[in-house]
Write a structure and sequence with these properties.
The chain is mainly alpha-helical. It binds zinc ion.
Amino acid sequence: MITEIVTIYEGPDRCKRCLGWKRIANDEEGLPWKYWAELPSPENLAVVAGIIVPVECPHCMGSGIEPKEQVDDVREQLAAYAHTARSGWMEYLFKQGTTNPDGSFTIRPGSVERWARQMRTTYWSLPEEERKSDLAEADQILAIVRKQ
Ligand SMILES: [Zn+2]
């Protein structure tokens, strides 16, 4: 039997599983503890007898607050990855050419040819050697997704 006093969380973002009660019943359905706590006598016999007891809500880890969607966090991490990949590419690009006195930038013909060809080629048609950097990026994306 739970003897500690648990404050019910009543914020708008209260846990959908325990309804902010921070605990659920150990019954088959894992009903919010609210259901059992508010049962009138004698229907609460299982509670009085200690057969049905409250356990920490596994959804909110007993906080009573609905966990923030993990997908939002993954989305931010993927966006950060996309930004890093793009800025890394641009840093590489600016090292491959020449900045002119007027601030414009000249790309060497060999680089123009190579990048234009790659731009027009699907991944599946790239030579194996040129797929390697794309595969390395895929691995980094997978690492972010798998961490969740
Ligand atoms: Zn909960």
